[in-house]
Amino acid sequence: MVLESVDLTKYYGREIGCRNISLGVSPGEIFAFLGPNGAGKSTFVKTALGLLKPTSGTIRLFGKSPEDLHVRRKVGYLPENIRLPEWMTAEELLRFHGKLLYLPEKKLKRRIEEVLTRTKLWERKDNRIKTYSQGMRQRLALAVALLGEPELLFLDEPTSALDPVGRIEVREIITDLKRQGVAVFLNSHLLSEVEMVADSVAIINRGEIKARGKLAELLSGRGILIRGEIPEALLNKLKSRYQTGEAPNGLKLLGVSEEEVPAIMRDLVLGGANIYEVRPFKAALEELFIQAVEGKNGADN
Ligand SMILES: Nc1ncnc2c1ncn2[C@@H]1O[C@H](COP(=O)(O)OP(=O)(O)OP(=O)(O)O)[C@@H](O)[C@H]1O
């Protein structure tokens, strides 16, 4: 395992940061950590990077403490809302980070060209960062994170400042890294993007994991779609029992197992509903996320 945490708990005084987080990330895996604001994502990442000490539990990177220097050299980190030194050029900034990584001159030169080309900033390498747009800054921060050829890369909201083309480019960088065996730990609010790249996800809320698994498994067979005219009272009953979603001329019920379907249908028909269609559907990550965060109907799996 590239990253393994067991019951990792971090309190800030009496305030919970994250609690009992147990998860593992394998080489070449894209692991997405999702959660609303204040859920505990950054707390977990900072603890994994050795920037915060856990209150209890353990976290190992490459089987060792995150504070181990050899481990640190294998890890890249793109923080959220990074502030870059405005007066430096992109090349100067990368040189500075290259020195911190003890990269030999020849390799540093090669890596600077590679990462700036990969992030489409090579042409602008001699311009000061103060002349960069938000998107360029974010791409430069990504270049910094990639400089040391990390085997594990933490990306905190890597595409928040990017336009759609920039987002596609970052997605391509992430999938290229995966192909090279790099593990990516991705914090993102952009669920549709996560859906496109992640192998596994964990959904965290109020410091605790509420749902976790391989993305393909989490999204398969998660609910049913009902098309029909459903009396208000019945609709409200369903809404109180299940997480529901909008569907044209009907509704989606999430987290419904096949065994529950006959009873639901019986209730609907006896209650006066006109049903035209019932079929299973694959939930979108957004629905799974809302279900896990609101904790309805056994989302805590
Ligand atoms: N330095 C701190 N001192 C006290 N409480 C903190 C500190 N940092 C975070 N917290 C609290 O810990 C909880 C988790 O915060 P954290 O920043 O890890 O969430 P997050 O999921 O990264 O949120 P966001 O998506 O908004 O960045 C929150 O309740 C937050 O208020």
Strand and helix layout:
Layout: E1 3-12, E2 15-25, E3 30-34, H1 41-48, E4 56-61, H2 69-73, E5 75-78, H3 90-100, H4 105-118, H5 134-146, E6 152-156, H6 164-179, E7 183-187, H7 191-197, E8 200-205, E9 208-214, H8 215-219, E10 223-229, H9 232-241, E11 244-247, E12 250-254, H10 261-270, E13 274-281, H11 285-294
Helix pairs in contact: 3-4, 4-5
This protein binds adenosine-5'-triphosphate.
Adenosine-5'-triphosphate (ATP) binds at residues 12, 15, 17, 35, 37-43.
Structural key phrases:
single chain, 301 residues, Rossmann fold, 11 helices, ABC-2 type transport system ATP-binding protein
Question: Care to describe what's here?
Answer:
By secondary structure, the chain is of the alpha/beta class. It has 11 helices and 13 strands. It has 2 domains: 216 residues, 3-Layer(aba) Sandwich (Rossmann fold), CATH 3.40.50.300; 59 residues, Alpha-Beta Plaits (2-Layer Sandwich). The strands form 3 sheets. Strands 5-6-7-3-8-9 form a 6-stranded mixed beta sheet, with helices on both faces. It has a 4-stranded antiparallel beta sheet with strand order 11-12-10-13. Adenosine-5'-triphosphate binds next to strand 2 and helix 1. Adenosine-5'-triphosphate (ATP) binds next to strand 2 and helix 1.
